[in-house]
Amino acid sequence: MPVEIPVEQWPGRVIEETIGANPAEGGTRSRVVKVGGENTLPFLFTDGEMPNLPRIAIEIADRRPTEWSPLLLEAWGDVVDDPAKWAKAAEEAGADLVLLQLSLTRDGGNPTTAADAKALTRAVLQATGLPILVFGPGQVDADNELLVAVAEEAAGERIVLGICEEKNYRTIVAAAMANGHLVNGRTAMDVNLAKQLNILIADMGLPLDRIIMDPTTASLGYGIEYGYSVMERLRLAALQGDKMTQFPMLVTPGFEAWRQKEAKVGEGVPASWGDWRQRAVLWEALTASDLILAGADIVVLRHPETVKRVRTFIERLMAK
Amino acid sequence: MALTGLQIYKLLPQTNCKECGFPTCLAFAMKLAAKQAELSACPYVSEEAKAQLDAAAAPPIRLVSVAGPGHRVEVGNETVIFRHEKTFYHPPGLFLRVKDSWPLEQVKGAAKEAMDYTVIYVGMNLHLDGVAVEAASGDPETFAAAVKAVQEVTDRPLILMASDPAALKAGLTAADGTRPLLYAATAENWQAVAEIAKSANVPVAVRADSLDDLADLTEKVKGAGIQDIVLDPGVRDPAGTLVTLTQLRRLALKKNFRPLGFPIITFPGEGASDVIEEAQLAAEHIAKYAGFIVLDRFAPEMAYALLAWRVNIYTNPQEPIKVQPGIYEINSPTADAPVMITTNFSITYFSVANEVDGSGLPGWLLVADAEGMSVLTAWAAGKFDAEKIAKTVKTTGIEEKITHRKLIIPGAVAVLMGEVEEELPGWQILVGPREAVDLPGYLKLWKSF
Amino acid sequence: MTTTSAPLPPNTSAPLLTVVFRPYEKRVEVPPGTLLSDAARLAGVDVLMPCGGQGRCGRCAVIVESGSVRRRSTQRLSPDDIAAGYALACQTLVESDVVVFVPPQERIERRIKETKRAAKIELPFPYDRHDQPLRKFAVTLEPPSLADQTDDWSRLQRELARRYGLRNLQASLPVLRRLPGALREGDWTVTVVVELDSWDHPEGPPRLIDFLPGERLESLWAVAIDIGTTSNVVWLVDMMRGQVMAQAADYNGQIARGEDVISRIIYASKGNGLQELQELVIDTLNRLIAQVAAEQNIRPDEIYKATVAGNTTMIHLFAGIPPESIRLMPFISVVNHLPTFPAREVGLEINPEGTVDCLPGIASYVGADITAGVLSSGLCDSGDLSLFIDIGTNGEMVLGDCSWLISCACSAGPAFEGAGVVHGMRATAGAIEEVWINPETYEATYKVIGDEPPRGICGSGLISLLAEMFITGVVDKSGNINLDLPTERVRRREHGPEYIVAWADETAIGRDIVITAVDIDNLMRAKAAIYAGFSVLARSVGLSLQDVQRLLIGGAFGQYINVEKAIQIGMLPDMPYDRFHFLGNTSVRGAYYALVSREMRRRLTEVGRMMTYLELSADNTFFDEFNAALFLPHTDLSQFPSVAALMEKEHGR
User: What domains can be seen in chain C, in order of their start residue?
Assistant: First the structure.
């Protein structure tokens, strides 16, 4: 019996965006990375195309992240003391992108200054040829101050500035516009809030191909389903032609998974949770894999083993 | 295709007689549309309308059940492609495969380990659903012995896997009194398998390597009198299962294509080389449309992750989202850090927690059980009053964790301040800001209050 | 101890303290720990408490000039305010002898909203004065004689039965006492007022409720009443003609005890709050009744019937029924349709034999005001899909046509009625009712009710202001004030950013009239709740808002809304203006229809029976729609094509 396979062709398409600029484009990157551009739900190649596979960013901290799980510190070794070395190690671990996470304070407790942020950004840019993302500490005033400095220091490199929220988007978008960068707009797991921030950013005149949306997610077991459904809804809206949702989506499963006990700690947890090392990687890998199925275009990861696992899963999903 | 409430209403008597237990015919129609009521509750519906409504109500994906002596699994009857459209109803059964070619002790050991496994997640006891026994030996008696051995260690349902009808029959006899799934009818053996399934009244899986062949086969098996069918479209890798299972779901729901309107069985272990890879693939199948998932590997961490994921994906997104009441520590609070209280509506909780988190300031956040309502709604409904606040303070044990006695209540319920003071002698009650967004500024000044 | 309604604290053994209220120079003695608001009430000083004494609104701020007090809460007061002696009367306890100054602009206004004579009210159906339960009959009796020794009452009954077929007539003792006087004063011609039957006793028996000496058939009076949470309205109706002969309106006297229904329910549950609230609304109604009666030169006791519409809480409070269960899950009212009762049982000052009919409600949050609105708006008369909304604090709405009705209530809050907004006020003289902002200079011009210096901004002014701020870019689409604009009208204060609508020297209050970020937030929430209600209602039955053929807007406030501005902020759906119908107070109109027509009363019951109530707290759909609507004009701009076109034109924004 011939079965007529239902094909869904969508009127909309996610904007294809370029992160990083090579010397010909005014930057110094040896690689640039394209994200987005799909006109189908993830990996449904009978419906449409997905010109760029989901990208993996590795998160590095600007100083030894003592609050991170010992498993992560062990996996990276001494490079965590030096963002430049860490960036290089991340590149070697298979990252497509390097995400520099700035802290509120430096070692010793002094606040991170604009000069610190510039120096850190410069060091990372010099250490790796990959395109980079730089995220502020997540406090409105600090983010405004540090990210403006970062944007100036990295002028022309087409980096991604984050985190841009409804509270402070004006400053960060202005810095991105002035220096040729992209912004990562973050909202709290809600379709409408995500779209609203996109509109606010677009209203300021930032070209649409320089907006990435970060709908926020949660870890497996800790509310991931809200993030998952929000992403599915946003992607469906984009494919249905809603221009203000047609942006690549970035999520941070590494951060989310590793702050949960399941990944973070090996003691004082139920025996039914099984082997810690395998569980930790599994928790981050499943969180990331599930969000990729929901439409993530960039996943930010922490553990090098997870990077391999997620990379393999993506490649297998891309097999036509 | 599903009818809207208004379309159903037009078919009802519109007399608002209330005998169905709903206040109006429209209210009843909306419940019918939401599948939260049965048409039989209406004594006056016309035969003609009944026929129309029944046709519209027939599930596009058949509900299929398997059962052991102590556990039953129902899958199918799904109505949406994306969980946010309504909800996913019947979580896929997670089974572990054992083979009769293994020593019996190994069969038993593997089955027992997996079936005894249990983990507590958000107050629920989660476990796997059953065992798939595969006739790898080629010998019906060996197969029957393996089935018996598995039954000694679990009362959960079985999947009997054999291509030889004789083996299936032997296995079925060994599993007498239960309702296993027979796997699988193929182009070669379907007549014999269907006959066995029909006489035992058990569901049967059909396997073919293309959807065309699969549809042919289900029609044949149906023609042989079998209604409870499960599909194996033969794909095993991540890309193939994602595309094929999506197509099957769409065919059933959007095209109402009856020959393929059945639950699907998958074998992620066959498309993976280790535990993590199998877990990634099984997780894909949980989210994207499997009804039975047969695992080849068992590890507690893998079982925990998949069971939690299954709960997550099958949570009804229409229900108000609650968080667990209790104490939440933000930014490693010390004994002199501020104590705030809010309700357990998740959006409320997240807005408060995120603001405090983002402020970088440490704090204790108490979450009261307000039945998942926001602060003002809960207050209006009497679920977040002075008594509830006092109870939360006393029962969470926050008093042992802190040295001060100051409690910040939401600005929206400033009215409760005096009453809370009375309920909590010795405590100083502070009125916080109305909106979470003002919390960081408030907390900066907290020490001065 | 938080309640302001509680009797004075039991601490009566302590020496009493003296509280003096200036500028009234009224003094009162109270025990230590008494709330200033309680002391004020004892002293006979009215302090406005729109939030019901919850310490939320800041409107009861007074200045403590001397003495010691304890401020339980200082919400909405700045450190400067506190230094200047400001305290919230409802949250401040007396600790010593004190002198308190009540600022003049905060005195409770008693302005009458609708002084102008409204146009003649037309009935959409023919009036039949013979088919009414309330009737007048004039008869002339044979005087008694030695030959005819029948008693007066039997004589009257005999004649009424013979001439009008009235049998089994009942009369109370107080009425009978007046029979001999009336008969003889009219020289054996008498006019009787009879209530033939009532809503819940359609078979009678007929009840004789008054005698008037002589033939007095020129008029027969009754009233239709609407008890709104904010405003009360009385229409005086002549049942001989079926016409409204006088109208009066005033604020509900309960306002000072809470601005929304929840606050009032809570107030009613404490101490003798229920009795107090009942008395307050009855006082208001009696004053209005006296007013309409005076206008027609009649006495209130010549009014023999009242029909009453109002939301469920208001009806409960009017009847003195505890409303507590309305606010508690599962939100059940005590009674949706009250039986007919004598007016004297609630103290309503019409004829003591007169009865009151309260219109039937549907649910706790969809009351008789809505059934009345559905009836009088003509929603259920037509096959056209119509949406009815009563714009007020509770935001009740109904979608449907002649064959089905579905309703919901989405609490919009009191922002559009001027509360919860720093410089909000009701639509009275001195209120800014419309604002225009220059898109180049961001300067504001405005129109004030009564053409006097402004004292605040009313609901329609707030809608207009928000629309202008949005269109000119003073706020972004989330409602955030853009502090980078080159104008002194935007600034940051300790409570956050604000925009100055009127500089202090232009106003009657001597301070800048501003709209703050918090105010904007409240307005955004109010408008989002209303639009989300529309969307959820339509979606619940599988329809789109664009399918709506008529949008029927009730509520007195609704009359003043500028549709264009309301669409610009995304409060009302973007559809051709001719689909909007502003109906004024549909609730009192419904009560009027019920008063004059049996058919209308039957249909009210029918509306109640066919109405389906959608409880919005039952699922997440409302929350989702609410978030979508919490944007200017809406997250989905395609629902507002005319606004999109305007934005295109204005800035290419």
Answer: 17-106 (3.10.20.30), 134-213 (3.10.20.880), 223-368 (3.30.420.480), 378-412+529-651 (3.30.420), 415-523 (no CATH)
Reply yes or no on whether the pLDDT at C576 is more than 70: yes
pLDDT in the model for residue C393 = 67
Q: Is the pLDDT of residue C170 over 70?
A: yes
As given in the structure block, the two tokens for residue B291 are 């009804």
| Residue at B275: amino acid letter | V
- Shortest Cα–Cα distance, B39 to chain C (Å): 18
**Dist CA C338 CA A64 (whole Å):** 72
pLDDT at C392 over 80: no
Q: How close, in Å, is residue B284 to chain C by CA atoms?
A: 26
A193, A203, A242 ranked by CB distance to C476: nearest: A203
**What is the pLDDT confidence band of residue C558, given thresholds at 50, 70 and 90?**
low
- Among B265, B262, B291, B266, smallest CA distance to B280 is for B266
**C485 Cβ under 8 Å from any chain A Cβ:** no
Residue C31's nearest CA partner among C52, C60, C10, C57 is: C10
Fold classified for A17-318: TIM Barrel (3.20.20)
One-letter identity of residue A126: Q
Spatial separation of the C-alpha atoms in residues B180 and B73, rounded to whole Å: 10
CB C69 within 8 A of CB C97: no
Q: What is the pLDDT of residue C57?
A: 53
pLDDT of residue A127: 97
Give C413's pLDDT tier (boundaries 50, 70, 90).
low
Domain locations in chain A as residue ranges: 17-318
The tokens describing C301, both together, are 């006791």
Of B320, B380, B422, the CB nearest to C620: B320
Is there a contact between B24 and C542 if contact means CB atoms under 8 Å apart?
no
Domains of chain B: 5-57 (1.10.15.40), 64-313 (3.20.20.20), 326-448 (3.40.50.11600)
User: Contact A192/C627, CB-based, under 8 Å?
Assistant: yes
Instruction: Say what the pLDDT of residue C490 is.
Output: 96
Extract the residue ranges of chain A whose pLDDT is less than 50.
none
> Tokens in use for B240?
């193939």
Q: Is C631 on the interface with A (CB under 8 A)?
A: yes
Q: What is the pLDDT of residue C542?
A: 87
Of A170, A190, A199, the CB nearest to C627: A190
Query: Are B414 and C54 an interchain contact pair (Cβ–Cβ within 8 Å)?
Result: yes
Cα B344 from Cα C127, distance rounded (Å) = 57
How far is it, in rounded angstroms, from Cα C351 to Cα C178? 14
Distance from CA of C638 to the nearest CA of A (A): 9
Q: Is the pLDDT reported for residue B23 higher than 80?
A: yes
Whether C65 has its CB under 8 Å from any CB of chain A: the answer is no
